[in-house]
Specification:
Glutaredoxin, six-stranded mixed β-sheet, globular, about 160 residues, about 30% helix, homotetramer, alpha/beta
Chain lengths: ~160, ~160, ~160, ~160
């Protein structure tokens, strides 16, 4: 749960995400566009109970607690099951009803297999998962499942304190 | 919020519901099948935040707290908006993921207009709404929005105490 | 957790309580004064965490949810440990700060031993404990520890429904 | 709620506290003993509802979430009302029952007036109040009332990141 600390500061760079469609943003976002900010990548599925009951409200709280210029919250809809029930049109209704206040990208389906492309590339274990990127776009936390507000806040605070 | 009390005990009978499809029950349920039990009819939409965050967990708690022979919990999926996103196939995934432990019927769409048939017939104001039926199948509470566990429990207890 | 049901309706009558001092009531209360109402006897200690964090807020909710004419909530301060720290003067400050909105009686210390008199008489196992009395003053529930709002509400509703 | 930022980094140093009695520590603590650690000074009264229901559980979570070598949590019992009910003997029972897992000092009563000495010196507005000190022992946050875990975590994280 703690930020990976390596001697040589060899944190892996966040690879590009592959997005089929964006919501809540006037134009497509690239990882590089967020350089200079701390980034919380919140990966979820709209029909995943732990996402809806815990991780999405937490992502909303993070969006509200920190200035846009300091922390970017980006949702990534990584559908790997019940694909028919979680198409972009349904996600649009979900985002509207739950009043999500941050950009959400739809992880691009793969040519074969249920896992979407960014999810595979990042080797995510399921939803919800959180990735935290430092201001240089390096992955400093990758966590599957719940994380407490206190710990998440401390990780964000640490990263905000770094140039 | 209190149970309607009329001098002559003139409580309206629950009208028949019109169901397009059932989940979590081996055969279609009729209102009359539940005669003799207290019934909690929990009307919801799978993409309604107050339903997902409050009313559905409460319906699950009611299911768990009281014996099947005493209290029947029946879900009614009354889709009146975002129809494309809440089709029965999506509801099926939702029921599975949220592990709903009670029968759920899909309120039958009307020939015209967004409101489904049972919702119109009952003149429901939105979701979530709760209806409580006494052992004679009469409507003793119809409530739109949240209701506390303590008050809901007291209403159920009162109805359970009546022959 | 369910109300005791005996064939011959042989529910034990609530014995008299022995109170050293009352708070939040202009005159001493006797069990008989409450005949005709459903009574929730909430036994607690002001320095018991499960009382402060769970049972006292619940007792306050019960007081607020039901009319005074139907449900009486009575607190009983059953000090059986840390006697020096929970004297009536400290309880007075506690009642004031936590804004308890129901009468509270101090269970009378015994001549010998740490257990106060009413606690011994009722054979209570600890705090918090709840007793529910029906309108005839008979004990219908005696429960040590937490109880959910839904179950407590149902028990109160059942008892309110009885003449 | 945000950490004070001054151009010249002129953060006030934490003054010495005056403690009548310590609990949960084998020897008296001085502010200087904690130099090098981030310090959360949690000021409370054992009969203050917002302390008991919110701030004390939060202080316990902070103690649990971060290593002792990084974050020191110190309780300060600043009794300014109901003095008779919150004497050290009562506090001892409280600490035991609520299983407080950090050192707690009793703020020394003043010669005159209800406010204890450290409380006056720090000009605290009431309880609960939180002070955060950086590794140099400078006051970086002084906050009266509730603060969310996410914000508190971020402040602690920022301070932990600083040498």
């Amino acid at each position: 749960m703690t930020i990976t600390q390596s001697a040589g500061e060899d944190f892996p760079p966040m690879p590009a995400w592959e997005i089929a469609q964006w919501f809540n943003t006037p134009h497509a976002l690239q990882v590089e566009d967020l350089r200079g900010k701390v980034v919380m990548l919140h990966t979820f599925q709209m029909l995943c109970p732990a996402c809806v009951l815990h991780a999405i409200p937490q992502a909303q709280r993070v969006r509200k607690a920190f200035p846009l210029a300091e922390v970017a919250v980006v949702g990534l809809h990584t559908v790997f099951e019940h694909h028919e029930a979680m198409r972009p049109q349904a996600l649009d209704a979900f985002i509207h009803e739950f009043r999500l206040a941050f950009p959400v990208g739809v992880d691009k389906p793969a040519d074969t297999g249920p896992l979407p492309r960014t999810m595979s590339r990042l080797n995510l274990q399921g939803t919800p998962s959180i990735l935290l990127l430092d201001r240089q776009g390096r992955i400093r936390l990758q966590h599957f499942g719940k994380i407490d507000d206190l710990e998440l806040g401390a990780l964000l605070g640490r990263l905000m304190a770094q140039a």
